[in-house]
């Protein structure tokens, strides 16, 4: 009886070790595969450059706003825009009055921003804009919005779109199909854009093809 019990205990122990080993290998392989997938996705959606003016898209043009000593020699990433059937070049807007948390970076950058003649909120001659988390650009980040016609819109991230309000890539708003939402002063902006600001500035009536994210942030 004792020998049978010992054999049972030994068999159970061996089985337990085998199950533990297989589970560990499975978890390890799954983790490695996930890391490789994340790295592959990041490589696919972001191309790294070290020159702030030269490089990137063939449509890359030099912006007068970029001619600042504080921005030279700053690294940047170029993000290609994923395809989205509902996107046709529209550029939405949001009222800055909706930003109410005084301790948020969104609110703090609005405190130093100003409103231009058309009602757009700006800082450092750049448009405040809301974008999705796909671009890895926190509030205060300097970015450029490049259009298919070669126009470059200099911007600063003033707000972040919630993942639950964007598509699977966290780029386009589910409500309007847009990738960019310009922050405006509702008291001056009115409703002249009918939900799309593309026609309010010359050269804006074109689709966004790249977002350039600079390693330069207002809060650093």
How would you summarize the topology of this molecule?
Elements: H1 2-45, E1 46-49, E2 76-80, E3 92-95, H2 105-112, E4 114-115, E5 121-123, E6 126-131, E7 141-147, E8 152-160, E9 181-184, H3 186-189, E10 208-217
Parallel strand pairs: 3-9, 6-8
Antiparallel strand pairs: 1-2, 2-10, 4-5, 5-6, 6-9, 7-8, 7-10
Q: What Rg, in angstroms, do the CA atoms define? A: 25 Å
Order of helices and strands: HEEEHEEEEEEHE
Low-confidence stretches: 35-70
Mean pLDDT: 77
In terms of structural class, how would the helical and strand content be classed? alpha+beta
Strand content: 15-25%
Q: Per the principal axes of the C-alpha atoms, what is the gross shape?
A: globular
Largest sheet: 10 strands, mixed
| First-residue to last-residue Cα separation | 74 Å
Note down, in words, how this protein is organized.
The chain has 220 residues and is α+β, with helices and mostly antiparallel strands. The protein has 2 domains: 1-49; 51-217, no CATH class. It contains 3 helices and 10 strands; from the N terminus they run αβββαββββββαβ. The chain has helices at residues 2-45, 105-112, 186-189, and strands spanning 46-49, 76-80, 92-95, 114-115, 121-123, 126-131, 141-147, 152-160, 181-184, 208-217. Strands 1, 2, 3, 4, 5, 6, 7, 8, 9 and 10 form a 10-stranded mixed β-sheet that branches. Strand 5 (121-123) and strand 6 form a beta hairpin. The longest helix is centred in the N-terminal third of the chain and has 44 residues, at 2-45. The radius of gyration is 25 Å and the shape is globular. The chain starts with a helix and ends with a strand.
């Amino acid at each position: 009886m004792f020998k049978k019990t010992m054999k049972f205990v030994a068999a159970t122990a061996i089985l337990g070790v085998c199950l533990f080993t297989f589970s560990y290998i499975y978890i390890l392989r799954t983790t490695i595969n996930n890391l490789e997938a994340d790295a592959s996705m990041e490589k696919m959606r972001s191309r790294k450059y070290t020159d702030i003016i030269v490089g990137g898209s063939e449509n890359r043009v030099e912006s007068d706003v970029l001619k600042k000593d504080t921005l030279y020699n700053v690294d940047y990433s170029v993000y290609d825009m994923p395809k989205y059937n509902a996107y046709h070049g529209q550029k939405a807007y949001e009222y800055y009055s909706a930003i109410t948390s005084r301790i948020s970076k969104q609110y703090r950058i609005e405190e130093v921003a100003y409103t231009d003649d058309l009602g757009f909120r700006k800082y450092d001659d750049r448009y405040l804009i809301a974008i999705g988390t796909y671009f890895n650009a926190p509030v205060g980040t300097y970015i450029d919005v490049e259009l298919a016609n070669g126009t470059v819109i200099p911007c600063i991230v003033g707000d972040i779109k919630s993942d639950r309000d964007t598509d699977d890539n966290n780029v386009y708003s589910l409500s309007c199909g847009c990738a960019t939402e310009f922050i405006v002063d509702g008291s001056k902006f009115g409703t002249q854009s009918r939900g799309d600001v593309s026609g309010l500035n010359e050269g804006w009536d074109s689709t966004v093809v790249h977002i350039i994210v600079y390693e330069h942030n207002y809060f650093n």
